[in-house]
Design goal:
Elements: E1 2-4, E2 10-13, E3 20-27, E4 38-45, E5 49-50, E6 57-66, E7 69-73, E8 77-81, E9 88-91, E10 97-100, E11 105-113, E12 117-125, E13 130-132, E14 139-147, E15 151-155, E16 161-164, E17 169-172, E18 178-182, E19 192-200
Antiparallel strand pairs: 1-17, 2-3, 3-4, 4-11, 5-10, 6-9, 6-11, 7-8, 7-10, 12-19, 13-18, 14-17, 14-19, 15-16, 15-18
Protein name: HutD family protein
Organism: Undibacterium arcticum
Pfam family, one: HutD
């Protein structure tokens, strides 16, 4: 397992130039916005606007903090997202525009190229220590730690123990089975994890 610290996320403009995103991880490592297999990013959204279009890409979006996000979908349908909402999956090629409530939001975005891989984004609310089991070969797993206290991550495969700070991301080998628990005596009720599983087709 490996920590990707928030300080090492790559800041870059959105595809449509409407804002700035923090690229958490991308595959292959040297890929661009036009040829990645998968990409994980987070952005601070402060104004309304159009989503970037990504033909051939499946996307999932979740609001990490801030206000509410309203998505206008094709056919004048609407999807409303809040920090309490489940992740929303959609076609990256769809024409979508977003408006905000009074507060800006921070989001987490997962994208996979449909003919190469698929993904699942899961929100895990904090309770007791959390165990994440090993995965099948061909599955990449990342744990994004959005809010709350530092976590201790223990790998049962290697015996390794590392600390995952708030805002950091844990990259797991397929064979890793890990337990996550707070570094301090009492967990923070705001703590939230996002498990991202990416499977090669």
């Amino acid at each position: 397992m490996q920590i990707i610290s928030a300080q090492n996320y790559r800041r870059m403009p959105w595809k449509n130039g409407g804002g700035v995103t923090a690229e958490i991880a991308i595959s292959p490592a040297a890929a661009t916005l036009g040829d990645f297999d998968w990409r994980i990013s987070s952005a601070r959204v402060t104004t309304a606007g159009e989503f970037s279009r990504f033909p051939g890409i499946d996307r999932s979006l979740v609001v990490l903090d801030g206000g509410d996000l309203s998505l206008r979908l094709p056919g004048d349908q609407y999807q409303y997202l809040t920090p309490a909402s489940a992740p929303y999956a959609f076609d990256g090629a769809a024409p979508i525009s977003a408006t905000l409530s009074a507060a800006a939001i921070t989001d987490l975005n997962v994208m996979t190229r449909r003919d190469r891989c698929r993904h699942h984004l899961q929100r895990i609310a904090w309770s007791d220590p959390i165990r994440i089991d090993a995965a099948d070969a061909g599955t990449t797993r990342l744990v994004f730690h959005a809010l709350g206290v530092e976590l201790h991550c223990h790998s049962s495969a290697t015996g390794q123990m590392i600390a995952l700070p708030a805002g950091g991301t844990l990259l797991l080998d397929a064979a890793d089975a890990i337990e996550l628990k707070p570094a301090s005596a009492a967990p923070d009720a705001r703590a939230m994890l996002y498990l991202i599983e990416i499977t090669t087709r």
